[in-house]
């Protein structure tokens, strides 16, 4: 049927309208598909960092370091070396706090003389109390020179203090940045005290730390090395115990959303020799070598924090609780405190989302996909 001039005019107008709608839809889709921004706050470099760096929808704005398992200068060296191995020197590394706010090695020694031995003391560790399958870490002072096996990285850290970097980033991207913290919370506490708007400007905090009531879930002997400490001290966990005052400040800060990943679900996970081999098999050669150098037998603590954020479907049980850290210098110093709604002291505690259980198989599958994705990307680039 032949269109009249009016019909043709209406038809062309309709087509232009549809084209405009399609363009708007495409632009909206691009906006929705924009990468999720994240800053990683931790004391080193490992599989968690690789997972976040390899995720297709994630932009890692920086890696801030803090003393915990090792001193901050060593954590910085490890993170710099890790970004070089991963081919991601575009991601800045920023050194953070060397010392906890109040806690110290001397205070910890005094505490142990009064209340018993700690299983793990991080940078203050000199020997295991009981025999374990894990090696004894080397002991260093906070300002000892760092010479990594195989050499230090060529790239240097950003000449900025981690707390100031965190503040600068949340102001530059208000409401967009997730902070994934997997070590003591000293940097975040300093940022909050320097700028009371800091926590409120972030999108969310995902924190690996704290302990509620873990139980051993694996039969492997090395898993028992980490589960046994919770039998008599179910509320004690290293990240909070290293700097309880910082943890309390952060847990009282006005975040829009907090996801707490305690050690409880980690007792069902492990970097077994089998998982390590599977990850190395799908990785590119440099990352495979890096992975195979990792000591097996440890729970996937930090990887859980990254996994919960990247794929919330790995969580099989969660609950809402008010939480805080015990800052009284007594037998419970550094323990996690928690309350159901209505039972909390009402002194500014935050209501947080607590991960109680995960699907280990889904976590391992996620890790494998992300490591393999990087290898495929490198092969395609070649």
Summarize it.
This protein has 382 residues and is an alpha/beta fold. It is built from 15 helices and nine strands. The protein has a nine-stranded mixed beta sheet with strand order 3-2-1-4-5-6-9-7-8, with helices on both faces.
Rg? 23 Å
User: What ranges have pLDDT less than 50 throughout 5 or more consecutive residues?
Assistant: 17-32
- DSSP E strands, number: 9
- Overall average pLDDT: 91
Estimated structural class? alpha/beta
Task: Explain the overall architecture.
With 382 residues, this protein is α/β, with parallel strands linked by helices. It is 42% helix and 14% strand. It has 15 helices and 9 strands. Mean pLDDT is 91; it is low at 17-32.
Key terms for this structure?
single chain, 382 residues, alpha/beta, nine-stranded mixed β-sheet, 15 helices, 42% helix, 14% strand
How are the SSEs ordered, and which strands pair?
Layout: H1 5-32, E1 36-42, H2 47-54, E2 58-65, H3 72-85, E3 93-94, H4 105-115, H5 162-172, E4 177-181, H6 186-194, H7 198-201, E5 204-208, H8 221-227, H9 229-232, H10 238-242, H11 244-251, E6 258-261, H12 273-282, H13 285-292, H14 301-310, E7 315-325, E8 336-339, E9 350-358, H15 360-381
Parallel strand pairs: 1-2, 1-4, 2-3, 4-5, 5-6, 6-9
Antiparallel strand pairs: 7-8, 7-9
């Amino acid at each position: 049927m032949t269109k009249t001039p009016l019909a043709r005019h209406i038809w062309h107008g309709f087509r232009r309208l549809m084209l405009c709608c399609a363009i708007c839809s495409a632009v909206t889709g691009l906006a929705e598909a924009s990468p999720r921004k994240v800053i990683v706050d931790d004391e080193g470099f490992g599989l968690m960092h690789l997972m976040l760096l390899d995720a297709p929808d994630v932009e890692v704005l920086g890696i801030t370091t803090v003393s915990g398992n090792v001193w901050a200068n060593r954590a910085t060296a490890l993170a710099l070396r890790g970004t070089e191995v991963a081919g991601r020197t575009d991601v800045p590394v920023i050194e953070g706090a060397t010392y906890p706010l109040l806690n110290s090695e001397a205070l910890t020694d005094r505490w142990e003389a009064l209340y018993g031995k700690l299983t793990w003391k991080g940078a203050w560790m000199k020997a295991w109390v009981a025999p374990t399958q894990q090696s004894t870490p080397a002991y260093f002072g906070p300002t000892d020179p760092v010479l990594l096996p195989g050499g230090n990285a060529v790239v240097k850290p950003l000449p900025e203090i981690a707390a100031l970097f965190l503040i600068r980033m949340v102001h530059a991207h208000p409401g967009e940045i997730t902070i994934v913290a997997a070590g003591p919370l000293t940097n975040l506490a300093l940022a909050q005290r320097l700028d009371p708007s800091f926590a409120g400007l972030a999108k969310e905090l995902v924190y690996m730390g704290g302990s509620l009531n873990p139980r051993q879930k694996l039969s492997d002997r090395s898993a028992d090395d980490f589960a046994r400490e919770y039998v008599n001290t179910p509320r004690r966990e290293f990240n909070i115990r290293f700097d309880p005052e910082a943890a309390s400040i952060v847990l009282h800060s006005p975040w829009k959303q907090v996801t707490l990943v305690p050690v409880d679900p980690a007792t069902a996970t492990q970097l077994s020799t089998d998982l390590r081999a599977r990850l190395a098999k799908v990785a590119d050669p440099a990352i495979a070598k890096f992975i195979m150098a990792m000591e097996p037998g440890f729970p996937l603590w930090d990887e859980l924090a990254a996994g919960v954020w990247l794929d919330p479907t790995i969580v099989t049980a969660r609950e809402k609780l008010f939480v805080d850290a015990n800052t009284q210098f007594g037998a419970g110093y550094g323990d996690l405190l928690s309350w159901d709604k209505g039972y909390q002291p009402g002194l500014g505690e935050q209501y947080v989302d607590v991960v109680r259980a995960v699907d280990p198989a889904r976590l391992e599958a996620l890790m494998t996909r992300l490591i393999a994705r990087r290898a495929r990307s490198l092969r395609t680039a070649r």
